[in-house]
Amino acid sequence: MSAREKFFWQSVVGLVAAIYIAFSISAPDNERVVKLFFDWAASGGTLELPNKTDLIVPFFKTVSYPLGMLGFIILSYLVIVGTSNAVNLTDGLDGLAIMPTVLVGAALGIFAYVAGNSVFSKYLLLPYIPGAGELTVFCAALAGAGLGFLWFNAYPAEVFMGDVGALALGAALGTVAIIARQEIVLFIMGGVFVVETLSVMLQVGWFKYTKKRFGEDDASYAWRRCTTTSSRPAGKKRRWWCASGSSPFFWC
Q1: Cα–Cα distance, 60 to 82 (Å, whole number)
Q2: I need a surface site. Which of 1, 160, 179, 230 has the fewest CB within 10 A?
Q3: For the whole model, what pTM was predicted?
C-alpha cells in the first residue's frame, strides 16, 4: 500500500471516529447519534448542541477555549491521525514506540478514570464525562499488552509490531485523549512522539533539499554517511530491564 493510500484510509477512519465522538456527547445511543448528525448537517451547522466541545487547557482549571462542533471534529481528526502517524514514525524499524506507548496509555487511563467519576472530576475541576471511566480497563489492557510485547521483543526478538500495530496504538491513544478531553496533555506526555516526528520531517526535508541541489548521488552518499551504523554484532540483552523499567508502577 502506498503512502497516499495509507493516509487516505487513515483520514477516512479518523474522520468517522471524530464525527462519532463529537455527536455521541449529546446522544445516549447510536441511533440518536446518526439522527443528530443529519439534523445538524441539514441545519447548516447552526443547530444548538450542548457546550461540551471546549479545548481544556491544563494547569489552568478555569481556562478553556470553545471550539464548536466543527472545530471539535477538526481537532479530533488531527489528534487521531497525527498521533497514529507519530507513533508509527517513532516505532521505525527497531520497535522503539512501545515503552512510551505503555507510559502514555497508563497515564491516560488515570485521566479517563478521573473524568468518568463525578466526585473526583468535580474535586479536581476536570470535565465530567459519563462512561469515560470504562476506558481505564482498555488503557490497563493496552499497558499490560505493551509490557508483554516488550518482553518478547527483547533480543532475540520473537515478535515485531509493524505498521499495523503502531498505527492502531497511536490512534487508540489519540481517541482516549479526545474522550477524556486531554488533547494538550497528550501532546505533553507524548513529547517523544512529537520530537521523533519533527526529526523525521527535518531529515526528509534536508534529503530532498540536498537531492535537488547536489543531485541524487551526492545526496544519497551524504544520507548513508550520516546514518551508517557499526557492523559489529550487538551484545546479548537481558530481559530484566523490562521488569526494572516498569517497577515504578508497582511501587506507586
Answers
A1: 25
A2: 230
A3: 0.78
Q: Helix or strand or coil: residue 64?
A: strand
Report CA-CA distances (Å) from 22 to 11, 26, 92, 95. Answer: 16, 8, 32, 33
The answer to whether the beta carbons of residues 213 and 207 sit under 8 Å apart is no
Closest residue by Cα to residue 43 from 35, 31, 33, 32 = 35
Q: Peptide bond before 248: cis, by omega within 30 degrees of 0? A: no
Q: How far is it, in rounded angstroms, from Cα 53 to Cα 30?
A: 19
Report the chain's terminal Cα–Cα distance, integer Å: 44
Q: Grid coordinates in use for 194?
A: 512529537
pLDDT for 214-238, tens place per residue? 665 555 555 555 555 444 444 444 4
Each residue's pLDDT tens digit, 99-127? 899 999 999 999 999 988 889 888 888 88
- Check if the beta carbon of residue 37 is closer than 8 Å to that of residue 23: yes
- Cβ(173)–Cβ(75) below 8 Å: no
